[in-house]
Amino acid sequence: MFVNVYSLLTEGRRYMKIWPMVKQLGYYFPEYRVIRATQIAMYAMPVLALITVVTQTLILGWTFLPQAIATGLFFISLPIQGFIWLGWRAKHPLPLTLFDWSNQLSHKLTEMGINCQPLTANASYIDMAYILKLAFERLDKSYWEEL
Predict the structure, then answer these.
(1) Comparing C-alpha atoms, which of 49, 21, 48 is closest to residue 34?
(2) Which of 12, 40, 79, 106 is most buried, judged by most C-beta within 10 A?
(3) What is the pLDDT of residues 62-109, one digit of tens each?
(4) How far, in Å, CA of 40 to CA of 144, rounded?
(5) Is a pLDDT exceeding 90 seen at residue 4?
(6) Residue 25 dihedral angles phi and psi, to the nearest 5°
C-alpha cells in the first residue's frame, strides 16, 4: 500500500483550516483537540527540540550527540504527526449516522436560502467540515444549543 505523505500533509493542513474551531464540536469529534495540539506543537516543539539538543550535548558531552539529535527529531516530528492524522481523517469516509446528520444540516441551510450542496455517496470528513463551517458561520446560536 503506497501512501503519499506529502498529500497527507497538505490535506491535513487544509482540513485544519476548514474545520470550525468550536468547543461544542470538541465533545463529539477529536479534531478539535488534535488541531489545538498541532497548532501549539508547531510553535513549541522546534524550540523544545533545540533546547533538548543543546542541553544534552552541553551536559552529557559530544559523545551523546546522536541521541540528542534523535530526541530533537522526535520533538520536531510531533506536529507532522498531527498533520498526517488530520490528512488521513479528512479522506476517511463518513459513517452513516454522520452522513445523515450532515445531510439534515445541509438541508436546513438550503431551506434558509444558503447555497449548500448535499453530500454525495462517497462523502468524507472534509465534506462534512465544509458544511459545519458554513453552518457555524450562518446559523444562530439557538440551533447549536439543541445539540
Answers:
(1) 21
(2) 12
(3) 999 999 999 999 999 999 999 999 999 999 999 998 999 888 888 888
(4) 27
(5) no
(6) -75, -20
Element holding 63 (H helix, E strand) = none
Torsion of CA 121, 124, 125, 131, to 10 degrees: -50
Give residue-wise pLDDT tens across range 23-70.
Answer: 888 888 999 999 999 999 999 999 999 999 999 999 998 999 999 999
Separation in Å, CA 67 to CA 56, 64, 71, 78, 114: 9, 5, 6, 17, 56
**CA–CA dist 52, 68 (Å, integer):** 7
Half-sphere exposure of 69 (CA within 13 A, CB side): 5
Residue 139 is given by DSSP the state S
Whole-model pTM?
0.86
10 contacts 87 by C-beta, under 8 angstroms: yes
* Spatial CB neighbours of 55, under 8 Å, sequence gap ≥ 6: none
